[in-house]
Amino acid sequence: MEKSKQFFLTLSLGICVLVTYYLLEQGQLIPFADVFGKKQRNIYHPSVDEATASESSHLRRKKVIFLVSSKRSGSSFVGEYFNRHSDIFYVFEPLQMLTFYVLEGKLNNSAFDDVAMDIIQGLVDCQFNHGYNSAKEWLRRASSVCAFNQEIGKSNLCPFKHSRVSQTEVEAMLTDTCETTTDIAFKLIRIRDIEFIKPLVLNQTIDAKVLYLVRDPRGTMNSRDRGGKNFDLIRRMKNASFEVEDLCDTMEKNLKHYWMDTPTWLKGRIKMIRYEDVSLNPIDLGKEIFQFIGRRFRSGSHKMVIFEHSKSDD
Ligand SMILES: *[C@@H]1O[C@H](CO)[C@@H](O)[C@H](O)[C@H]1NC(C)=O
Ligand SMILES: *[C@@H]1O[C@H](CO)[C@@H](O)[C@H](O)[C@H]1NC(C)=O
Ligand SMILES: *[C@@H]1O[C@H](CO)[C@@H](O)[C@H](O)[C@H]1NC(C)=O
Questions:
Q1: Positive or negative torsion for Cα 167, 169, 172, 173
Q2: Nearest CA to ligand 3 atom 4
Q3: Taking burial as the number of CB atoms within 10 A of a residue's CB, which of 38, 69, 157, 284 is the most buried?
Q4: How far is it, in rounded angstroms, from Cα 13 to Cα 117?
Q5: pLDDT tens across 162-201, in order?
Q6: What domains does the chain contain, in order, with CATH numbers?
Q7: Keywords on this record (predicted)?
Q8: Closest residue (by CA) to atom 7 of ligand 2?
């Protein structure tokens, strides 16, 4: 009787260990993790694991992933690869507010690029306390950070409770959340020339990767026709009559100068992906993207969420 009890105890312990190990491997949530009040990543990412330990020191530099694309080319969808990854802090459209500042007359358009660079450099360091783009206003505007950053979305800043939280507290909270992750990813659809991020790519303290996402312009235009105004084009040109030319011209230049004839500063750091391929085969493309970035793709942690795009300005 004692023996069979022991046998069953050992057996169930064994099964338990195997199931846990399987879930860890798959990068899935441990059941009841919330009960223990722990963050998902703390459970299956012990601070030193074999993968990290075996990575050479240059691979351990902070990865900064720039998802560069244009409005309505699938960047919200592709951005979810990063948002759903527990090691990456994903910033959905850090420059969105700047476009509105220009249109509202609060910012001189000729200063846009300089201010944009300040903001991005700050974010690379998890700093949200720059003067231009108030984090609090940013959260309130369209709630985009709440909707598109899975960690912040879970916090008490979202959806609109932050009206009672001070500016400094909001910034500190964003910094804390950002600092718990190893890497950071941005979606950039308001810069026309990849050259813009050159100073960041050249910065040796980070490991920059650029994903240039393109889509058949017919699909992009078809999608834009159903969406709202192209505010960024209006900001740049004061007139959105030349939208097709602008789209094709931007794509052609970027592909020619940075992908087909990659300059030295971008060698090995840029990858072009087509939205059509992502939508046909999201898992394989996900693996390809993460191989390029040099981080592990965990199918379990990439529950691809297909959400309504019509509300986002992508
Ligand atoms: C915007 O900046 C440009 C260049 O610095 C300057 O010439 C122009 O007067 C500024 N416009 C406004 C409205 O401040
Ligand atoms: C390089 O990046 C680090 C970390 O983001 C930053 O603190 C530093 O100011 C950057 N250096 C230059 C020259 O941009
Ligand atoms: C935009 O520019 C074009 C060409 O200059 C002009 O024909 C058109 O009326 C302008 N549209 C608006 C809304 O200003």
A1: negative
A2: 241
A3: 69
A4: 54
A5: 567 777 887 888 888 899 899 999 999 999 899 999 999 9
A6: 31-308 (3.40.50.300)
A7: Membrane, Transferase, Transmembrane, Transmembrane helix
A8: 125
